[in-house]
Amino acid sequence: MVKKVAILANGGDVSGFNAVIRAIVKTAEKNNVECYGFIDGYRGLLENNYIKLSTTGNASGILHKGGSIIGSSLNANVFNYKVEENGKIVYKDLSEKCIQNVKEDKFDCIFTLGGDSTQKSARDFSVRGLNVIGVPKTIDNDVACTDITFGYNTAVTVATEALDRLHTTAETHNRIMVLEVMGRNAGWIALESSIAGGADVALIPEIPYDIDVVANAIKARQKLGKNFSVVVVGEGATPKGGSVVVKDVREGGAGVINTQLGGVGDVVAKELEKRTGLIARNTTLGYMQRGGTPTAYDRVLSTKYGAKAMELALEGKFGKLVVIKNGKLDSVDLEDVVGNNKNIGAVAAGTADSNAKLVTMDDDLVKTALDIGICLGK
User: Fold this and answer.
1) Do 108 and 222 reside in the same domain of the chain?
2) Which domain holds residue 28?
3) What's the CATH code of the domain at 228?
4) Among 52, 149, 184, 279, who pairs with 136 as Cys (CB 3.0-4.6 Å)?
5) What is the pTM of this model?
6) Does the annotation mark 164 as catalytic?
7) pLDDT value at residue 355
8) How many independent structural domains does the chain possess?
9) Which residue out of 40, 116, 124, 140 is catalytically annotated?
10) Residue 253 has what pLDDT?
11) pLDDT in tens, 278-298
């Protein structure tokens, strides 16, 4: 019988975290289950730092709030955790301490709210015997086995609103306005916001772009009397034969993402200005995509995910990820989510061995973009 559960939010913040937390807590309370929250994700799990959650207290009035009331950790890989010993930085597997904490706290299930890396660790804990249920979070929309992640719709909406504003500036001043959006190796935000925001060009990581093809598309618009263009660039987009633009690199050990992408929008703007004669300016949307109030869609999706996750726990179905498949709530094994990324704690998500969901050329969004004349750079 499930009587006591805990939630952890991990990875970059998204709009919808709190809606998921609220739904889990409300469903738990309805079934006489105590609910707690680990502070700052897997770091809180390691430090055994948690609080009681209640809809009559801290989990009340949070449906519309961005961020996470229990915080979230970035790059806290407890299977390869950064510690200092004798003045030196070393990396240790501290996952056993996390497992011991859960057992001593007598938690019957841990809910992991996060993206690829978070669910990779969830799967690793599941293999080690913990009762774990994942909920797919990321603005990138690249978690395997689900149609959509919570937080994605809000990010696309923010990007679309930005494009609406950039469009008027581009048209007024006869400029090329470039918008760089997040997504790392996945082009979902760039592609969907391009369609929704009426962009003329969409450059995504899955399709290496030819800058001359892009310039020619803009020149073709000029011949039609349209002396402006709007270009959307995913942060992981790369030119043919080139490489991704990296903003910063840090040393966080194996099993986490150590490269910070950013800067490709400026590169594209400069190259297009040279080739077209039009002034080109880039806007990098950055963290604006992550924060703030979730859309109605994300509020509902997050609530559905949270309630379903608690239902799975009550049914004793652990080692699962809550998903939307063909528009309906479902669940899949965490083993299916990690794909070939089988080594415990060793490989970060987003690598060649991961099972990240990327844009494919037969996707409806790609077909739609091409049908309406959006240039994809090839």
Assistant:
1) no
2) 4-150+294-338
3) 3.40.50.460
4) 149
5) 0.94
6) no
7) 84
8) 2
9) 140
10) 66
11) 999 999 999 999 989 999 999
